């Protein structure tokens, strides 16, 4: 099925739905429109999956390039497409759309119209981030996600929601503004070198421009700082627990499932290929910070009395694995990092959903307030056990595949392959089992602690519709990850080859002209063809 502008429809259909929700009346109508729009967006995104050519996964497919965004005198355009690095993240985003709408069905009772309108705007921003191939367009989508998320936390969050929302905005905006400075500088320098003097933010022209060694480091730092906050990478993580705990359940699912992946995706898409020498130089630093985050996040999770805060700190630990895999510069580790982004979105998103369902029933997130509820809610217990085991990396479930590839690929890495470092990273798998099983045992097993736990209702049909797709994907990705890994493998290999070529070209230029650091290094990189 060939639909013109299919990718743009997937990106902007939720935004169109947001406009409709603004004008309709009645909370029921708003919820129905949000569900129809997000569900339609997901099914349209499946056409991207079925129409995607795996043999050409390194190429840009469903590409669209149109009008200048700012001025005809600037090479800044609406340029979107997908390749093997972005397809799965787009599908994860569209899948979580209807799931979040359904999970908020009864949870959100005030300002319903505003809530669902913001959700739909947020989905457009998130999807656009993974499809943009103009770096300024990427920045616009990247910042677009900030506004609705701020209000989702600040209006529908917990007691300290204003503090958490403000902290989230300050952290993210500081990093983003620094990245904007780097984008403007890079656009002017690349325009002079490869675009006839015209300012450009076209991704492929920036790739063709070899950033001089003398400026790579500070440009890399500005980009990596912005993405490191978004991940969040230790020690830039302190905004995350507050935002997760105070956000409504649907906001936490989006935050863990998609927004954090914008940071790791940015590292892969921009930091590594645009600044390969600086990325290699700083690889060990990022690996050490990632491993500290893995261990620290796991230990702090074990100490949490609040179930939602435990899951929030677990994201610091799990995404530490992703960052470690990215800076290992091996195919196995990079593949593991890409699939682990999807795995984390499913497993941690499901954990937040389940904790939110418990909160709806008991209006408490304190672990000690539960106990023995497996007898009252056997269906909810089944999904919680499955999700905990998946998040802990049990073989046969999705979490194992990504962590195994990351650890194996990192051990073989020339940049971060220190046995002691990988050994510490491996302890994160053990510690994850410790804190997750501890939470599971305290909340679901043992003697029933109160009458409220004894009479707690089990999952209803709406909640089953929310959880079943995520549970099935955890099992499928654990047992049959090959179809998903095949999608990203060619793009991963091409990315690593581009990094190697640009590093070698920079080193040759530095040896032959040691005093010309200011001179750009030109590397011929053909723009992938559209499919």
What keywords describe this structure?
531 residues; mainly alpha; two-stranded antiparallel sheet; 21 helices; 4 strands; 3% strand
Describe this protein's structure.
There is one protein chain. The chain has helices spanning 6-23, 27-51, 87-103, 112-131, 135-144, 146-156, 161-194, 203-208, 213-230, 239-246, 249-274, 276-281, 283-302, 307-326, 331-362, 378-391, 398-411, 419-444, 451-454, 461-479, 482-512, and strands spanning 61-68, 77-82, 209-210, 521-522. A two-stranded antiparallel ribbon has the order 1-2. A two-stranded antiparallel sheet has the order 3-4. The protein has 531 residues and is mainly α. It is globular, with a radius of gyration of 23 Å. Mean pLDDT is 88; it is low at 515-519 and 521-525. The chain has 21 helices and 4 strands. Helix 14 packs antiparallel against helix 15 (331-362). The longest helix is centred in the middle third of the chain and has 34 residues, at 161-194. Strand 1 and strand 2 (77-82) form a beta hairpin.
SSE blueprint:
Elements: H1 6-23, H2 27-51, E1 61-68, E2 77-82, H3 87-103, H4 112-131, H5 135-144, H6 146-156, H7 161-194, H8 203-208, E3 209-210, H9 213-230, H10 239-246, H11 249-274, H12 276-281, H13 283-302, H14 307-326, H15 331-362, H16 378-391, H17 398-411, H18 419-444, H19 451-454, H20 461-479, H21 482-512, E4 521-522
Antiparallel strand pairs: 1-2, 3-4
The biggest sheet amounts to: 2 strands, antiparallel
Number of helices: 21
- Average the pLDDT over all residues and give the rounded result: 88
- DSSP strand count: 4
Detail the poorly predicted runs.
Answer: 515-519, 521-525
The strands making up the biggest β-sheet line up spatially as: 1-2
Strand fraction equals under 5%
């Amino acid at each position: 099925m060939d639909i013109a502008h299919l990718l743009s429809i997937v990106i902007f259909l939720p935004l169109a739905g947001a406009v409709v929700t603004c004008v309709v009346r009645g909370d029921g109508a708003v919820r129905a429109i949000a569900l129809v729009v997000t569900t339609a967006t997901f099914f349209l995104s499946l056409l991207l999956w079925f129409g995607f050519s795996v043999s050409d996964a390194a190429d840009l497919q469903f590409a669209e390039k149109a009008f200048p965004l700012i001025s005809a005198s600037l090479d800044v355009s609406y340029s979107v497409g997908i390749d093997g690095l972005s397809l799965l993240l787009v599908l994860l985003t569209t899948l979580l759309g209807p799931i979040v709408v359904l999970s908020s069905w009864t949870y959100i009772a005030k300002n319903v119209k505003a809530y669902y309108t913001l959700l739909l705007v947020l989905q457009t921003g998130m999807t656009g981030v993974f499809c943009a191939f103009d770096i300024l367009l990427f920045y616009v989508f990247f910042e677009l996600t900030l506004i609705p998320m701020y209000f989702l936390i600040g209006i529908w969050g917990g007691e300290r929601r204003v503090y958490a929302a403000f902290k989230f905005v300050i952290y993210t905006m500081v990093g983003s503004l620094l990245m904007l400075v780097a984008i403007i500088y890079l656009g002017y320098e690349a325009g002079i070198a490869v675009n006839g003097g015209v300012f450009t933010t076209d991704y492929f022209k920036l790739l063709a421009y070899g950033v001089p060694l003398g400026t790579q480091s500070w440009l890399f730092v500005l980009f990596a700082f912005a993405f490191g906050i978004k991940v969040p990478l230790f020690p830039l993580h302190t905004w995350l627990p507050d935002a997760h705990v105070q956000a409504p359940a649907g906001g936490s699912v989006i935050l863990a499932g998609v927004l954090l992946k914008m940071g790791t995706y940015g590292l892969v898409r921009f930091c590594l290929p645009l600044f390969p020498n600086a990325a290699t130089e700083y690889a060990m630093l990022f690996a050490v910070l990632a491993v500290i985050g893995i261990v620290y996040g796991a230990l702090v999770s074990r100490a949490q009395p609040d179930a939602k805060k435990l899951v929030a700190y677990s994201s610091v630990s799990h995404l530490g694995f992703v960052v470690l895999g990215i800076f290992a510069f091996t195919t196995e580790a990079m593949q593991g990092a890409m699939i682990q982004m999807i795995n984390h979105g499913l497993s941690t998103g499901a954990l937040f959903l389940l904790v939110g369902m418990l909160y709806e029933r008991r209006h408490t997130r304190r672990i000690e307030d539960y106990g023995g509820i497996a007898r009252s809610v056997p269906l909810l217990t089944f999904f919680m056990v499955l999700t905990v085991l998946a998040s802990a990396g049990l073989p046969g479930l999705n979490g194992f595949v990504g962590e195994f590839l990351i650890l194996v690929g990192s051990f073989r890495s020339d940049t971060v392959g220190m046995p002691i470092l990988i050994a510490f990273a491996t302890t994160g798998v053990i510690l994850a089992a410790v804190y997750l099983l501890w939470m599971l045992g305290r909340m679901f097993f043992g003697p029933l602690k109160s009458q409220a736990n004894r009479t707690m209702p089990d999952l209803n049909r709406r909640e089953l519709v929310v959880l079943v797709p995520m549970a099935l994907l955890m099992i499928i990705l654990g047992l049959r990850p090959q179809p998903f890994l095949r999608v990203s493998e060619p793009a991963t290999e091409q990315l690593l080859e581009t990094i190697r070529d640009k590093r070698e070209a920079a080193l040759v230029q530095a040896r032959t002209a040691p005093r010309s650091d200011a001179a750009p290094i030109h590397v011929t990189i053909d723009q992938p063809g559209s499919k």
